[in-house]
Amino acid sequence: MNIVLRLAWRNLWRHPRRTWLTAGAMVFSNVLLVFMISLQFGMYGLMIDNSLRTLSGHLQVQAPGYQDERKIRQSIPDAAALAARMRGALDLQSVAARATAFALASSEERSFGIQVLGVEPRFEPLVSSIPGLVREGRYLGNRDAAEIALGGVLARNLKVETGDELTILGSARDGSVAAAVVEVVGIFDSGSKDLDRSLAEIPLGFFQDTFYMQGGAHQIVLLLPELSEVDEYRQRVQALLPDAGRLVVLDWDELQPGLKQAIQADISSAFFMYAVLVILVAFSVLNTQLMSVLERTREFGIVMSLGLTPGRLARLVLLETSLLGAIGLLLGALAGGLLTSWFQVHGFSYPGMQEMAENFNLPARFYPQVTLPSLLIGPACVFFFSVLAALYPALRLHWLRPVDAMRAA
Amino acid sequence: MNRNRIGTLIALCLLPCAAPAATSDARDIVRSAIDHWRGVSSVSDMTMTIHRSDWQRSMSMRAWTRGDELTLVRVTAPPRDRGNGTLTDGDNMWTFSPKVNRVIRIPSSMMNQSWMGSDFSNKDVSRVDDIVDQYRHEIIGESAHDGHTLYEIQSIPHDDAAVVWGREVLAIRDDHVMVRHDFYDQDGRLVKSMQSLEIGEMGGRVVAIRQRMTKADAADEWTEIRLDAVEYGAELADSVFTLSNLRNPRNP
Fold first, then answer.
1. What is the pTM of this model?
2. What are the chain B neighbours of A175 within 8 Å (beta carbons)?
3. What domains, with CATH codes, occur in chain B?
4. ipTM of this predicted structure
């Protein structure tokens, strides 16, 4: 075996320029693959994390049907107490009850339809990033205070600043008129224009008084330490619910169906591009190896007539390809890793990315993550398909007849 | 050839003349139905019942109207809602809530939202006469109803009309009582339907005493307005239809 390896290595360098050109194609595609895959998976992680951290959390408890219909009567009775019980039983602080209603918010000058959330001021910052994004004033404090925190665009549209009063008007749970005067204490910039234009938060206790919720709320939001723990926690939460059937547990995919779909669509379109890249490289390897086999027809005829089996020759050719592939893999992964690491520190952005990023609540610069899988998946595919492409020239040797081969031009 | 051309010309002249003749008929019927319901002025006591699959709730209210433009509605019971009111003047609508002691103007973006939690929208309550001028009317059927002729009229909004409906179908009796009013969306699907469940004499006129608005996709969700008393033709001063009267009632 050792001699075959040595032969293969020497054969490879009979035409150094040709070998380097083929290896160059592999290195180039490997660098591209490492960079793209690192960027993509870094982005997905960020996308999921940021989207879920904004409002929805990983898991939610709701009344059946609330997710689709959003009626104020589809509520969870005694929600704050249930949330507190869940915090204890799960040993997880990031559990918060939340109520939602649509209302008309009006200032001295203007009125707009808004979505009002009733939140637990103590626990909401643990499940949502919005409390941390207050840019003016402060977040809600007291559970029963008549105060409101609202999005920056909404505040501008209503022409209010912190300290001003707002009137909110809507329908209470019993169908009566819900109305309240609240003081603007905080203005947040969530980064999502939709939320900043239409969202406001008031303390849960005050919400329950105003909208006659009698202790009820609409969602219990859970933010888990890791995305991978969703299934495990889902079962534990399910077991904690007082009476089965009256409440349901929804995971992040059910809460934000668009998110997983967007990721899947992105993966499949990217996959198509990678496949084209890998196949192109494989054909260039096929071309090189076929040429190198054909030009050695006479040589192979001689060694076969001396008693070398076609199988051993085929192994030689495959070994040559493997060595070539190994060069491409090592150099490609190395260069790709270095390039990606540079962007991991300095960030990556292109024109127009900001608009797209905003939709998923992402920052305008991406920082790709170099991981072992992202470093090896692409180059390994290139290696595998290169060797696969060399099968044809290698197997051809079985049909080679020594006498004819020796006479070949 | 000449003959043909003249024939076409005559046909072209006749067509547009013939069409308005038919629609103005339909338009008159709609117009008089609205005039009949509102009168020159009216003061009425009503009960509104909102029904849902798992609950039901009633409110009593009193309404003042004058002409096409002015309406004031004030809730009189139950105590939780007492004093809430709305004033409409043409396209403008204000609401008052004693809980916050404030008058709020309803922005036009909210006109299609529910009025006081009912199945009526703010628009349903305010601009009832929009339908006369902003729609093209056509009689699509006639039938008998309690000894009266019932005209079925299809009303399609003009292209520039600011409405969400694709078309509306009204069934109006020859004594100007509106028996049914269906609202279709732009795809031609029925969205909601108002039916007059009880027709009788009140305040010296034959009017719909009990009307029910039902959502097409949820038969057990409806809002019923029942007329308890009505007085037509009363002299109503300008001061009735003012923001200060909405806020501080002088006509209880």
1. 0.75
2. 50, 55, 57, 117
3. 18-247 (2.50.20.10)
4. 0.72
